[in-house]
Specification:
Largest sheet: 5 strands, mixed
Number of strands: 7
Number of helices: 14
Distance between the termini: 36 Å
Shape: globular
Order of helices and strands: HHHHHHHEEHHEHEHEHHEEH
Mean pLDDT: 81
Strand content: 5-15%
Radius of gyration: 22 Å
Low-confidence stretches: 1-21, 152-157, 244-277, 397-405
Helix content: 40-55%
Length: 405
């Protein structure tokens, strides 16, 4: 499918170009997936070996990464099976140790994109206090995932699965001067309108804090401020810097091969581990217009300039949504202090506006999200049942092994 190259049709150059582009896109998805899995698994293994990550957490993270990447391949056009997405040297290991992943990626939904999982791994193994250390580690992983295109026309991995923006936030109580830890989030890390809609809808339904979910759902209907934080939530976002240099790989950035089944399998090829210096790091960026609308009481650094750049993406795509959701989910006292209006005006059936309790509004809007999610999934090969089922990486039959066990 993706390895045969473009179909040749001399009499229909337009069609030939379309098929070639589609084939390149599929190749890019497969290369990106292989690179992501190899680099992520090696990093998780090293974190376990260095006692920076527990074996149980490592197992859960590995399963979640594998599942969400296989899910993305399966709902792509054309659909990509697990044996086409996973690096060949890992297929037998995954089949043997992570059978439930292979059983569920066609019928169970993930709860977040792959880079969000990897971001959690990095924060947990690096610590949340040192933001620069987290960004440095992400830069290193991004470099290792960046691989050359097979025909040297462009880079084969243009970050299909990587978040180009990461954000962190915290709450500093204006009254008590107490400060929470830092909470990190990433922008939606997948390509394609359908794929982004799927993950934003999943986040609204099953992943994000209810207040964030409500804010995102309401933003499409009204620009009125519906959610207020106590003073003050602070937030800073960072955009990935990609330099204009060649795409050729370099052996000097390849990680040392390790001696266990999963990590050794991940280390057997250097294809995905070539760091060519294209990824230069991150720069702090002001919030986009949509973030200002979603979280109007937040103190953003850097502050937004007078010339606010347009945000063509959908509400919920930004890294701030995930970061703020984590903050509210973890800091229960802060979550209790969020101010929500008792009643919210919404337009029912496009005929009249009615004041409805915010809890009922959230149910109504989530029902609309579920409908769009179902419609999008039915366009793919995903097995849509009567109810959505979500994959739980922490639950298994006890046969899965973590690196080093």
């Amino acid at each position: 499918m993706y390895g045969k190259g473009p179909m040749k049709d001399k009499s229909q150059s337009g069609k030939r170009t379309f098929i070639k582009t589609d084939t390149f896109r599929t190749q890019n998805l497969v290369k990106s997936s292989c690179a992501f899995v190899e680099v992520a698994l090696k990093y998780i293994y090293s974190a376990v070996q260095e006692k920076r990550l527990s074996s149980d957490k490592a197992k859960s993270y590995i399963k979640e990464i594998l599942h969400t990447i296989l899910f993305l391949g399966y709902i792509d056009f054309p659909s990509v099976e697990y044996n086409e997405v996973l690096p060949k040297q890992l297929i037998s290991v995954v089949t043997r140790n992570y059978e439930d992943v292979l059983q569920n990626y066609k019928s169970h939904l993930p709860t977040r994109p792959p880079y969000s999982v990897l971001l959690d791994v990095v924060v947990e193994s690096t610590g949340d206090a040192n933001v620069e250390a987290v960004l440095d580690q992400l830069t290193d992983l991004n470099q290792k995932m960046f691989i050359p295109f097979s025909e040297n026309e462009w880079c084969g991995n243009d970050f299909f699965l990587n978040s180009t923006v990461v954000s962190f936030c915290y709450f500093s109580d204006f009254v008590t001067s107490k400060r929470t830890r830092n909470y990190f989030g990433g922008s939606v890390s997948c390509k394609g309108i359908l794929q982004r809609e799927v993950f934003i809808d999943i986040s609204c339904i099953a992943t994000w804090n209810k207040a964030v979910s409500l804010a995102v759902c309401l933003a499409n209907m009204s620009k009125t401020k519906h959610i207020q934080f106590p003073p003050y939530v602070h937030s800073t976002a960072y955009h990935m810097i990609i330099g204009n240099v060649g795409c050729s790989g370099s052996e000097e950035h390849q990680s040392t091969k390790v001696n266990t089944s999963l990590a050794a399998a991940a280390g057997n090829t250097g294809t995905a581990l070539a760091g060519d210096g294209r990824i230069k790091g991150y720069y702090s960026k002001p919030p986009c217009q949509k973030c200002l609308e979603l979280f109007p009481d937040t103190r953003f650094t850097p502050e937004c300039s007078e010339h606010r750049y347009p945000a063509p993406w959908e509400y919920g795509n930004c890294a701030e949504c995930e970061a703020v959701s984590k903050l509210l989910n973890a800091e229960t006292e802060l979550n209790k202090r969020i101010s929500l209006p008792k009643y919210i005006p919404i337009n029912l059936n496009y005929t009249f506006t009615e004041l409805i309790p915010h809890s009922d509004v959230h149910k109504i809007l989530c029902s609309e999200r579920k409908e769009r999610l179902e419609n999008n999934l039915r366009k793919t090969n995903f097995e849509v049942g009567e109810h959505f089922m979500f994959y739980n990486p922490s639950s298994d039959d006890g046969t899965a092994l973590v690196p080093g066990q």
